[in-house]
Design brief:
- The strands form 2 sheets. Strands 1-2-3-4 form a 4-stranded antiparallel β-sheet.
- The chain has 4 helices and 7 strands; from the N terminus they run E-H-H-E-E-E-E-H-E-E-H.
- The protein has 163 residues and is of the alpha+beta class.
Length: 163
């Protein structure tokens, strides 16, 4: 006799990169931009310098906005990635397709208390997803792993290894 499967509902988890990840990613450009503006305002008032610094500032503001608009949602069955500033992109990874995880912390991320979680999947469009700028104290891998194992069991997906 086949017993009915109980469907377990997980609460949706929404994650966003920490703003300090922007500082880590763009530190040389931020320093150059701040130095340039202080130099421009203080002594050297050339028009071309203002144009270059304005363009650099606009690029940095775009990158900050892009990072702030990234949203990772972990549902019962999928990992969804929302991103974009002028266009909106929404990508999906079925959790039963996830095969491996990795956590990485660069030196600057260690100083800021952040990490990058890499998720490897059998998905054709997104074989590797990096969740950048996550707080180091969050157990993201444990949360995803629990849902992955549940979905693999529910769908009857088994991994075959050659040892």
């Amino acid at each position: 006799m086949i017993q009915p499967q109980t469907i377990r509902r997980f609460q949706t988890v929404t994650l966003r990169p920490h703003w300090m990840q922007f500082v880590i990613n763009e530190l040389p450009w931020l320093l150059l931009c701040m130095t340039g503006w202080s130099y421009y305002i203080g002594w050297y008032s050339q028009g071309w310098l203002a144009v270059v610094l304005s363009l650099l500032t606009a690029v940095l503001l775009y990158r900050l906005t892009y990072l702030c608009r990234i949203k990772y949602r972990i549902t019962s069955e999928q990992l969804m990635i929302e991103s974009g500033v002028f266009t909106h992109s929404l990508a999906y990874i079925e959790l039963y397709r996830v095969v491996d995880y990795d956590e990485h912390r660069s030196f600057m991320q260690q100083l800021a208390g952040l990490k990058t979680v890499s998720i490897y999947s059998g998905d054709r469009t997104t074989p590797r997803l990096d969740l950048i700028g996550m707080e180091a104290g969050l157990d993201i891998v444990g949360c995803i792993r629990e849902r992955v194992e549940y979905n693999k069991l529910r769908k009857g997906v088994y991994e075959i290894t050659n040892r």
